[in-house]
C-alpha cells in the first residue's frame, strides 16, 4: 500500500484516472465486494488522519488589534505624539498634554473603526471543511454503513446514490447512469455522466469521467468507487493549499498613503528644523525660555503639517461607502476594497451562475415543419412560443412542438416546484428544462396528464438514451417515449412526425434532421432529441421486460436546443463597464462553444471569437501567456491553477483585477485578485470567505453599481486629500515665510520681548482642530459631481497625488500664506503696505482669521480639480454645515474673552472682519482662474485629438 494514497501508488506513477480500477483496488488492498474491515479502516484513519482540510491557525485577538496600527501614517502620528509629550515635559509638564491626547484619540479611534469593520476572520479553509462535512455510505466488511465523511480512508468503497455528496476523491469501479454535479469544482453547468473505463493522455479535470471528487454531488444514477484521496490529498485540498499560499497585497490607496506618509515624515522633520533654525537666527534666541517656545512652535508646525485626521477620515469615509454599497446589495468585507473596486481595469468573471443564471433553459425546438423559439429564461415557467418573433401560425409546427415537450416531460425524473415566490428544481437540470418549457405552451401539461408511467429504461452513458413506458388512461394504448443524444436517437428512428401524421424516415429526411442538430450545436446549444413508438397488440408482450431493444423503430419528433441563458441585466452591465474603460474577461470551466456563445451574446467577445482552453494555457511559457492575456476575452475548460495564471498575467500588465465567481474552483483566483467578488446566493461559503466583496443578489449589474460607488468614493478621497494637504501647506508656508520676511512685514519688533512669528503654537493647533476634520469628512460623502463612469480607470502605477495635484496643493497653500501675511502687514505699521496702526495681537488675530477663512473657502475649491466651485454648490449640506460651524467657532475664539486669553487673540471690528473675509476669498478666485485654465487646456487638447482622428 502506498504511503501517500493520493500519489497514485508511488513516485512517478500515473494518476488514478489513467489507470484501471483493478489497479487502484490492488494498490489499496481492498475487495470491491466486501470493502475494508472496520478495524482496518480504524488503523488507516489513525495513519492518514481524518478526511478534513487543514484549517488556518486562528489569528490571536491581540494580533488583530495590532494589525490596525500597522500603517505608515499611524507611525507618523505616533511620532508626533512623542514630540508633543517631550515639548510638554520641557515646558514644565503643566496641566495635560492636550496635543498628544488629541492625536492619540484619533489613532485609537481609527484602530477601533478598522477593527470593527474587518473583525470577520478570513477562514476560507474552515469554510471548505464545513462545505464537505457530510456523511457517506461505504462497504465495511460486506455490509453497507453510513459514516461521517471525515472518517473516510484510502481504500474505502464508496456507494453512490442519487442525492449523495461525494465525500472523497475516488476511482470509479462501476457506474449506472451516474451523473455528478461538478459545477462548484470545474464550472461545468451540466451534470457529468461518469464512465469507469480507462482514459489516456492529458485529460482536464472536467473530463475525468472515471473519477468522482470530494465536495461534488450525485444528481442521477448509482455507482461504486474506491477512495484514492482524502483530506488535503483531494482536488478540493489542492485548492485549499492554494488559498493558504495566497497573500493579501496592499491596495493601491494603501500603497499611495504609505508613500505620502513617508514623504510627509521626511518633509515635516525638515520643515520644522528649518523654521526653528530660522526663528532662532532671526530673533537671536539665547534663553532657555526662548528655546522652549521655539521648540513648541516647531512641534506645533510639525503637527500642523501632518494631517492627523487623515486615517480616521479615510476609515470613516470608506466605512460609509461600505454601508452605501450594502444598500445596493454589495457587501464589502474590507474597507480598502471599496477604493480598489473603483480602480478596477479588468473584471475577470466566471460564467456559470455569474453571467448566466445557472438554470438550463430550452430556447429552440426544431421539428420537421420548422423551428420555434421559446422566450423566458431560467426555471420560472413564463414565456411564449414564437416563430420569427411572432405567434406561431402553422398548426402542424405547433402540434409537433407540443409533442416534443410532452415527450420530454414524460420521460423525465426531475421535479419543478414553486417555493417562497421563486421556482426551484430537484434532479437533472436538463430534464427540468422540459418541465419549465412545457408550461409555456398550452396543452402540453394536459397531454402528459393523459398517460400513466409504467416503466423506465434508465439513462446510460453508453446508450446516451433514456426511455419511459406510457399507458393512456382512457384508451389503454401503450407507447415508449425516448429522449437522448440526437445522432444516436436518429439511428433508431424509422418514422418522422409531420403534423398529425407519421411519414417514413428516408435518407433525405434523416440528413435534414442531422443538419438541424448541427446548426443548433454550432450556436452552442446543448441538443436533446425526442422520439416515441406505439406498441401494437401483437408486441405488447415486449413491454413486460423493457430493455434497450425496445428503443427501435421509433418515430422522431424533433430536437430541443438548451442553453444556460445569460442574466437579463448582464449585457447592459458589460456595456456600462466597457464605457467606463473596464475590460470584461470570461473565465469558466464550461465547454468552449458555450463560453464563446455567451461571451458574444453579452458583448464580452467579438462574434466568432474562439475560447482559449486550459490545455492551451498549460502549453504556454510566460511570454506567451502575457501576449495571450492582452487579447483573449474568453477562457474555457480551465482548472483553478489556470485561473490563477490568468489573474497574475493581467496584474503583471499593470491591471487592477476584480475576479468574480461562485464555485470552489474560483476561490484561489478570488484570493489572488486585487478584489475578489463572490456570489451571495449561489456562491459557496468558500468563495464568500476568500473574497473581498459579496454580491447579495448574485447580480452582475451590482458589480457595475459598486464600481461607480467605488469611483465616487475614490474621487471623494482625492477631494479631502487635496483639501487637507493644501490647507496644511498654507499653515506651513504662513509660518515659514512669516519668519523669513518678518522684518519686511513689520513683524520683527512689533511686540516687545515676543518671538517674531505670524502665528502662535496654540493658534496653529486650533486651525488644525477646527478646519481639518469637519469639512474633510463632509467632502468624503460628497455626491457624484461628474459622470465617473465616463473616464478611464486609474492605472496601477498612477498616483493619487500626481504632479498636477501637487502643483495645485502647493499653489493654493502659497496663496493662503500670502493672503494671511498680507493681512498682518495691512494691520501692522512699518510693513510693505503703509497705513497700518494696530497692535501685534490684532494683526496676528487678523492673519489667523484670514488663514482659517481661506481654508474654509478652500473646502469648496477642493471638491473638484477642474470644475468650478460654483457648480452644484449646494448639493452637500454636510459641507455647508461644517463650514458654518467652523466659522462660528472662529468668531468665538476671536471674540470670547476666555478663549482670547487661551489663544492669544484680540477682538476685531466689522471692518476688520470684512478685510479678513475679502483677503481669504483670494484663494477662491485664484482657484477659479486656475481651473478655467485647466479646462481651456483640456478643450484644446481634445480639439487637437479630434482633428487628428478626422484626418
Written account of the structure:
Helix content is about 50%, strand content about 15%. It contains 34 helices and 28 strands. The strands form 4 sheets. Strands 10, 11, 12, 13, 16, 17, 18, 19, 20, 21 and 22 form an 11-stranded mixed β-sheet that branches. Strands 8-28-27-26-9-23-25-24 form an 8-stranded mixed β-sheet, sandwiched between helices. Helix 4 runs antiparallel to helix 10 and helix 30 runs parallel beside helix 34. The N terminus and C terminus are likely disordered.
Provide a compact summary of the structure.
By secondary structure, this protein is of the alpha+beta class. Strands 10, 11, 12, 13, 16, 17, 18, 19, 20, 21 and 22 form an 11-stranded mixed sheet that branches. The chain has an 8-stranded mixed sheet with strand order 8-28-27-26-9-23-25-24, with helices on both faces. Strands 1, 2, 3, 4, 5, 6 and 7 form a 7-stranded antiparallel sheet that branches.
Largest sheet: 11 strands, mixed
Number of helices: 34
Counted beta strands: 28
Separation of the first and last Cα atoms: 76 Å
Q: Please, what is the average pLDDT?
A: 82
Which structural class best describes the helix and strand composition?
A: alpha+beta
Strand content: 15-25%
| Whole-angstrom Rg | 37 Å
How do the strands and helices of this protein lay out in sequence?
Layout: H1 21-28, H2 38-48, H3 61-67, H4 72-90, H5 98-117, H6 124-131, E1 135-140, E2 143-148, E3 157-160, E4 169-181, H7 183-186, E5 192-193, E6 211-212, E7 217-229, H8 235-245, H9 252-283, H10 288-305, H11 310-327, E8 330-332, H12 337-342, E9 346-349, H13 351-355, E10 361-367, E11 370-374, E12 385-387, E13 390-391, H14 395-410, E14 415-419, E15 422-426, H15 429-438, H16 444-449, E16 451-457, E17 465-472, E18 478-484, H17 486-491, E19 493-498, E20 501-504, H18 507-522, E21 526-534, E22 554-563, H19 570-579, E23 583-587, H20 592-602, E24 612-613, H21 614-618, H22 622-631, E25 634-636, H23 640-652, E26 657-661, H24 667-672, E27 675-679, H25 685-690, E28 693-695, H26 700-740, H27 742-745, H28 761-780, H29 803-827, H30 840-861, H31 877-895, H32 897-903, H33 910-920, H34 922-950
Parallel strand pairs: 9-23, 9-26, 19-22, 23-25, 24-25, 26-27, 27-28
Antiparallel strand pairs: 1-2, 1-3, 3-7, 4-5, 4-6, 4-7, 8-28, 10-11, 10-22, 11-12, 12-13, 14-15, 16-17, 17-18, 18-21, 19-20, 21-22
Helix pairs in contact: 4-5, 4-10, 5-11, 9-10, 9-26, 10-28, 11-26, 11-28, 14-15, 19-26, 22-23, 26-28, 26-29, 26-30, 28-30, 28-31, 29-30, 29-33, 29-34, 30-31, 30-33, 30-34, 31-32
Amino acid at each position: 500500500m502506498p504511503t501517500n494514497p493520493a500519489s497514485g501508488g508511488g513516485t512517478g506513477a500515473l494518476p488514478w484516472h489513467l489507470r484501471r480500477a483493478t489497479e487502484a483496488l490492488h494498490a489499496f488492498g481492498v475487495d470491491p465486494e466486501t470493502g475494508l474491515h472496520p478495524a482496518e479502516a480504524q488503523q488507516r484513519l489513525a495513519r492518514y488522519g481524518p478526511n478534513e482540510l487543514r484549517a488556518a491557525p486562528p489569528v490571536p485577538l491581540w494580533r488583530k488589534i495590532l494589525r490596525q496600527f500597522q500603517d505608515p501614517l499611524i507611525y507618523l502620528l505616533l511620532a508626533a505624539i512623542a514630540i508633543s509629550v517631550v515639548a510638554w515635559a520641557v515646558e514644565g509638564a503643566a496641566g495635560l498634554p492636550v496635543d498628544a491626547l488629541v492625536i492619540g484619540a484619533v489613532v485609537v479611534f481609527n484602530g477601533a473603526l478598522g477593527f470593527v469593520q474587518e473583525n470577520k476572520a478570513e477562514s476560507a479553509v474552515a469554510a471548505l471543511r464545513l462545505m464537505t462535512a457530510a456523511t457517506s455510505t461505504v462497504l465495511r466488511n460486506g455490509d453497507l454503513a453510513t459514516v461521517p465523511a471525515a472518517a473516510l480512508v484510502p481504500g474505502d468503497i464508496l456507494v453512490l446514490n442519487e442525492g449523495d455528496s461525494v465525500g472523497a476523491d475516488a476511482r470509479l469501479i462501476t457506474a449506472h447512469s451516474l451523473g455528478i454535479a461538478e459545477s462548484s469544482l470545474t464550472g461545468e453547468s451540466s451534470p457529468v455522466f461518469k464512465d469507469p473505463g480507462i482514459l489516456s493522455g492529458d485529460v482536464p479535470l472536467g473530463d475525468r469521467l472515471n473519477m468522482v471528487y470530494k465536495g461534488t454531488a450525485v444528481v442521477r444514477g448509482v455507482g461504486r468507487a474506491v477512495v484514492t484521496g482524502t483530506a488535503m490529498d483531494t482536488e478540493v485540498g489542492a485548492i485549499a493549499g492554494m488559498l493558504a499560499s495566497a497573500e493579501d497585497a496592499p491596495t493601491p490607496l494603501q500603497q499611495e498613503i504609505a508613500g505620502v506618509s513617508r514623504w510627509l515624515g521626511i518633509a515635516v522633520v525638515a520643515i520644522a528644523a528649518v523654521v526653528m533654525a530660522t526663528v532662532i537666527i532671526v530673533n537671536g534666541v539665547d534663553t532657555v525660555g526662548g528655546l522652549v517656545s521655539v521648540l513648541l512652535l516647531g512641534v506645533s508646525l510639525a503637527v500642523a503639517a501632518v494631517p492627523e485626521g487623515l486615517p480616521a477620515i479615510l476609515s470613516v469615509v470608506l466605512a460609509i461607502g461600505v454601508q452605501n454599497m450594502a444598500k445596493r446589495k454589495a457587501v464589502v468585507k474590507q474597507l480598502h476594497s471599496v477604493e480598489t473596486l473603483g480602480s478596477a481595469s479588468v473584471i475577470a468573471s466566471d460564467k456559470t451562475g455569474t453571467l448566466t443564471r445557472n438554470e438550463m433553459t430550452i430556447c429552440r425546438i426544431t421539428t420537421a415543419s420548422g423551428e420555434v423559439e421559446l422566450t423566458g429564461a431560467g426555471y420560472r415557467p413564463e414565456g411564449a412560443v414564437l416563430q420569427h418573433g411572432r405567434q406561431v401560425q402553422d398548426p402542424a409546427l405547433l402540434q409537433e412542438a407540443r409533442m416534443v415537450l410532452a415527450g420530454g416531460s414524460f420521460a423525465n425524473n426531475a421535479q419543478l416546484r414553486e417555493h417562497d415566490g421563486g421556482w426551484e428544481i430537484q434532479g437533472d437540470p436538463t430534464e427540468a428544462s422540459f418541465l419549465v418549457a412545457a408550461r409555456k405552451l398550452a396543452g402540453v401539461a394536459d397531454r402528459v396528464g393523459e398517460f400513466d408511467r409504467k416503466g423506465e429504461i434508465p439513462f446510460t452513458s453508453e446508450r446516451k438514451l433514456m426511455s419511459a413506458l406510457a399507458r393512456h388512461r382512457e384508451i389503454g394504448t401503450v407507447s415508449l417515449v425516448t429522449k437522448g443524444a440526437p445522432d444516436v436517437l436518429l439511428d433508431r428512428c424509422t418514422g418522422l412526425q409531420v403534423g398529425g401524421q407519421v411519414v417514413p424516415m428516408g435518407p433525405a429526411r434523416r440528413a435534414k434532421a442531422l443538419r438541424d442538430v448541427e446548426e443548433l450545436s454550432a450556436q452552442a446549444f446543448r441538443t436533446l432529441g425526442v422520439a416515441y413508438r406505439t406498441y401494437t397488440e401483437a408486441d405488447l408482450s415486449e413491454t413486460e421486460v423493457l430493455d434497450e431493444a425496445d428503443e427501435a423503430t421509433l418515430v422522431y419528433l424533433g430536437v430541443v436546443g438548451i442553453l444556460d441563458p445569460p442574466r437579463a441585466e448582464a449585457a447592459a452591465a458589460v456595456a456600462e463597464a466597457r464605457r467606463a474603460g473596464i475590460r470584461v474577461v470570461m473565465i469558466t470551466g464550461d465547454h468552449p462553444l458555450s463560453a464563446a456563445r455567451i461571451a458574444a451574446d453579452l458583448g464580452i467577445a467579438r462574434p466568432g471569437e474562439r475560447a482559449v482552453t486550459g490545455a492551451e494555457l498549460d502549453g504556454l511559457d510566460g511570454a506567451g501567456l502575457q501576449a495571450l492575456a492582452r487579447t483573449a476575452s474568453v477562457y474555457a475548460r480551465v482548472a483553478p491553477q489556470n485561473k490563477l495564471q490568468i489573474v497574475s498575467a493581467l496584474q503583471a500588465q499593470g491591471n487592477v483585477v476584480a475576479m468574480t465567481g461562485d464555485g470552489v474552483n474560483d476561490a484561489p483566483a478570488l484570493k489572488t485578485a486585487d478584489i475578489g467578488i463572490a456570489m451571495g446566493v449561489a456562491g459557496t461559503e468558500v468563495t464568500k470567505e476568500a473574497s473581498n466583496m459579496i454580491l447579495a443578489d448574485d447580480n452582475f449589474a451590482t458589480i457595475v453599481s459598486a464600481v461607480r460607488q467605488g469611483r465616487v468614493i475614490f474621487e471623494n478621497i482625492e477631494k479631502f486629500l487635496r483639501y487637507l494637504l493644501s490647507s496644511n501647506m498654507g499653515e506651513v508656508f504662513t509660518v515659514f515665510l512669516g519668519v523669513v520676511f518678518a522684518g519686511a512685514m513689520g513683524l520683527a519688533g512689533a511686540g516687545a520681548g515676543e518671538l517674531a512669528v505670524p502665528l502662535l503654537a496654540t493658534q496653529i493647533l486650533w486651525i488644525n482642530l477646527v478646519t481639518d476634520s469637519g469639512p474633510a469628512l463632509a467632502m468624503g460623502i460628497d455626491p457624484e459631481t461628474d459622470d465617473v463612469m465616463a473616464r478611464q480607470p486609474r492605472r496601477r502605477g498612477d498616483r493619487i497625488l500626481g504632479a498636477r495635484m501637487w502643483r495645485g496643493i502647493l499653489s493654493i497653500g502659497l496663496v493662503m500664506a500670502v493672503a494671511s501675511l498680507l493681512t498682518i502687514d495691512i494691520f501692522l505699521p512699518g510693513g510693505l503696505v503703509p497705513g497700518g496702526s494696530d497692535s501685534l495681537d490684532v494683526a496676528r488675530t487678523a492673519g489667523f482669521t484670514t488663514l482659517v477663512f481661506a481654508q474654509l473657502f478652500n473646502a469648496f475649491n477642493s471638491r473638484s480639480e477642474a470644475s468650478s466651485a460654483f457648480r452644484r454648490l449646494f448639493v452637500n449640506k454636510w459641507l455647508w454645515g461644517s463650514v458654518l460651524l467652523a466659522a462660528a467657532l472662529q468668531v468665538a475664539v476671536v471674540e470670547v474673552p476666555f478663549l482670547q486669553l487661551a489663544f492669544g487673540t484680540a477682538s476685531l471690528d466689522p471692518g476688520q472682519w470684512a478685510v479678513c473675509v475679502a483677503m481669504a476669498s483670494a484663494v477662491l478666485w485664484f482657484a477659479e482662474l486656475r481651473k478655467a485654465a485647466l479646462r481651456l487646456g483640456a478643450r484644446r487638447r481634445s480639439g487637437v485629438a479630434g482633428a487628428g482622428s478626422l484626418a
